[in-house]
Amino acid sequence: MKYIIAIIQPHKLEDVKEELYKAEVNLITVSEVLGHGRQKGVTEVYRGARETGNLLRKIRLEIAVNDNFLDATINAITKGARTGNVGDGKIFVMDMKDCVRIRTGEVGSIAIG
Q: pTM for the complete prediction?
């Protein structure tokens, strides 16, 4: 089991979700976050407004997958989020020790779905 955290551009969320659904990855958590990488201070357009500063709006995706879905999930995020410009984002992959479905008490890969 793997836990994936991806940081992407806000305007690419719908494209990433579409690619994830094509890859049959349907269980995601989405958060709006602030941050910056090496491009700190770069001006960005968000919802029609120009923003300058050291903290830019980003989207954080959190996805738990079984090992057989790892490559498909990474490929879907990459395909949906890529613009070819600085600031496209990052994908972090971590080993996940366990997962418990609260409703049923199922544990492990079966609990992920």
A: 0.85
